[in-house]
């Protein structure tokens, strides 16, 4: 089957210009001395927060600037259809960005940042499953000032591009070694089988235990040290999974060993 249509919506190349006041207030901290940030929201997707670099007013944003990602949204066909639904508040879905001056976080339960302004970028996602589309690339005025020279300006790049993916789904719990189905819309097609198993890293030392059973007193300390290592090795467990095609031939495998975590009474040495 063909891959499922996905769209990657990216927000990047953020920058903020704030004109320097002729008589700045003493209580105001200029953004060049304190980092700014913004909150990026797309309808029902989780809110994303990122730092906004300050850009001197006299400088121009370079045209050949490499894309610096600030936020990414991965949209499935169902997500695109939901966003395309008309609302009484807006005919098109919008990407909403709130720009703040000051540091992120809160102090004594009060937010530290001060809202500078909000930006709304309309999105027309029709056809983005097959071709890229740039919704905005450049500066936009934010804040209460209406004059271009006196208002703060916010630079951003918002674009969408195709991101097709193959979607697979276990037909049951992975520990039960189920079949693996490829999903495309409402179609489910079996493509793989898998075998899941737990493993113990201490098992690999079982074959060498007989080599440490010499009665020589000069090696008793080595045997005790080896048994201690075996005990610690047994505490580290892991899992492995092998994927087979429908004919039974293995096509992929993966494994992981859980890291050692010291517990009360464990002896830990630094090498």
From TrEMBL:
<protein>
    <recommendedName>
        <fullName>DUF1005 domain-containing protein</fullName>
    </recommendedName>
</protein>
<dbReference type="Pfam" id="PF06219">
    <property type="entry name" value="DUF1005"/>
</dbReference>
<dbReference type="InterPro" id="IPR010410">
    <property type="entry name" value="DUF1005"/>
</dbReference>
